[in-house]
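fwd from M.: "can u put these together and see what the complex looks like"

so here's what she sent:
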Amino acid sequence: MAFSKVSVIGLGYIGLPTAAVIASRGIEVVGVDVSEKAVNTINQGKVHIVEPDLDMVVQAAVTLGKLRATLKAEKAEAFMIAVPTPFKEGKQPDLSFIKSSAEAIAPVLEKGNLVILESTSPVGATEQLAAWLQELRPDLSFPQSAGEDADIQVAHCPERVLPGRVLEELVSNDRIIGGMTTKCSERATELYKTFVRGDCITTNSRTAEMAKLTENSFRDVNIAFANELSIICDKLKVNVWELTALANRHPRVNILSPGPGVGGHCIAVDPWFIVDSAPDEARIIRTAREINDGKPLYVIEQVKKAADQFKRPVIACLGLAFKADIDDLRESPALDITLQLAKLNVGKILAVEPNIKTLPDKLSSQNVELTSLSDALEQANVLVVLVDHKPFKALTVADINTKVVVDTRGLFSRF
Ligand code: SAJ
């Protein structure tokens, strides 16, 4: 049975693009969010997040009447939950947003509905979601008790898109479809087939949850290797960028890039879900997290040494986002380093972030100034490259040769 109305719960970096892409396939989509501002913005055909081409797709879907946003859930055939799953004190997963989503959709659930959890989740979260729904709707049957005969189908289909390439990857990536039963997987596959060109591969919900955590942990461990190498190389006076370029010429070696630390709301968070579930066994995964979390401190020490060379250090931090060419400051090591430098009174701190218009309060309250790149180049005696944004990549030797440079991204290793 085809889907004529789908509801997406959570209209953030994943939910909004997903809602817009499904709407662009001619399906009526109702997005639900707790933020009145986000709901109003979307209903005007505008977007509240920066992602290439998203504004166009949302505007088209809203103008055609296929996409609208609301604060309160309404009836639909499928509900896709794309809410944050941060960690709380002690690095334990916080499932409270999934629980509130269950509370939001439970009153409008009807026999035959499909509920999909897209949020990255610890193993067992989909079963927990189904248990919460069962508690709230004892009149309906769910897969954990009714199996293939359940009134409501429940599946985990983890999002896997890369910020900056979301619209492309939403359609082209393969999807893992982890149904609580075979029927759940089949029904969820039908939905994803309406907009995914990649393969839809079915499994159970626990394996799907672990697959997503594994993908991000794999990347975290490999970035930790690169970050550890960069510190070893500094000690041994070897250029890590030249080193990795050389080693990567081996056909079976592919070292990732060192950086100022790992940011974002995924790779810096998800491995902890594995550590929390298996604390004694997840040794490499935990150590990788610690290495990546420790890298900002190492960068701060380097900047302090650079600043010590000047009577009045003026430090320009190039980039605040967690990676290149996006505006997302969540869990950003660049932002954290800039903030700590300001708090430590290392010198006057300028921040250059071409993708934002105003500084977060925590930076402005520490007297950090948001400046243009050209102003920063004029004023600063220390440059700290924290993000490899396009305008920074375009800098030349002439732009930087009078400065002391701390280059965490290897932008100037080519000079
Ligand atoms: N980073 C490095 N060195 C590298 C690569 C990345 O230091 O060689 C840093 C980045 O600067 C950034 C962080 O790692 O601070 C994470 O960036 P990323 O581009 O590796 O990943 P995310 O967080 O933007 O997106 C990841 C993706 N997962 C994988 O590539 C396995 C994406 O596909 C997921 O959908 C996303 O997490 C998610 O939502 O979980």
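replying to her w this: The mean pLDDT is 96.
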